[in-house]
């Protein structure tokens, strides 16, 4: 067999490496690392279906079936890239995961009714919950994810008078996305967003629209705010 040129090998390696999602690469690598640590701790030199069954049996004692499937999916991708092993062919492992899923009823996320959303926007005091109102409105009008909110800058928001036009930065699907916030006499969305924008300190270098977003995620909320974050920010 002819020797494969080095540049071809490098290109093939790069193509294989790109099989892992760019935005979730660190998360995938962490899960792969956890498995390797477990394998080394148990003095295991090989990776086969028996090893994976033992690993997932231990995981099943701590995690829900949904989480097990997530970890399986991540290992399937990382083991192909790093070990050249395709665990999608491990039929006993897949059967094991299916058995664990039988009868499992996942917890349902709490969902706010339209009346509760309106009550929060109207009655919650702005001196405490103005940021939360803006986050909620972005969720209602644009369905933004947490990382999209964090990465949003003042340049992504354009006030056109009758509407506010919002560009979504770096969506999960890597596709362009935008939406408009319109006014409504029951919600007053435009005035809420404008009030928050007006309070933003002038002349600072930080361009993020939500300046204290990370800090706020860490504090304790009342029940309303906890539900808002669960439903609209997918926390």
Q: Can you walk me through this structure?
A:
The chain is 56% helix and 6% strand. The chain is built from eleven helices and three strands, in the order H-H-H-H-H-H-H-H-E-E-E-H-H-H. The protein has helices at residues 6-17, 25-41, 49-60, 65-83, 91-101, 114-123, 126-142, 146-151, 189-199, 213-218, 223-232; strands at 157-159, 163-167, 178-182. It has a three-stranded antiparallel sheet, with helices on one face. Helix 4 packs antiparallel against helix 5 (91-101). It is elongated.
Helical proportion, percent range: 55-70%
What's the average pLDDT?
A: 80
Strands of the widest sheet, in order across it, are: 1-2-3
What's the gyration radius in Å? 24 Å
Distance between the termini: 53 Å
Percent strand equals: 5-15%
- Classification by helices and strands: mainly alpha
Number of helices: 11
- Residue ranges: pLDDT <50 for 5 or more in a row? 213-224, 231-235
Broad shape: elongated
Q: In a nutshell, what does this entry contain?
A:
The protein is mainly α. Helix content is 56%, strand content 6%. Helix 2 packs across helix 4, helix 7 packs across helix 9 and helix 7 packs parallel to helix 11.
Q: What is the strand and helix layout of this fold?
A:
Layout: H1 6-17, H2 25-41, H3 49-60, H4 65-83, H5 91-101, H6 114-123, H7 126-142, H8 146-151, E1 157-159, E2 163-167, E3 178-182, H9 189-199, H10 213-218, H11 223-232
Antiparallel strand pairs: 1-2, 2-3
Keywords, please?
single chain, 235 residues, mainly alpha, three-stranded antiparallel sheet, 11 helices
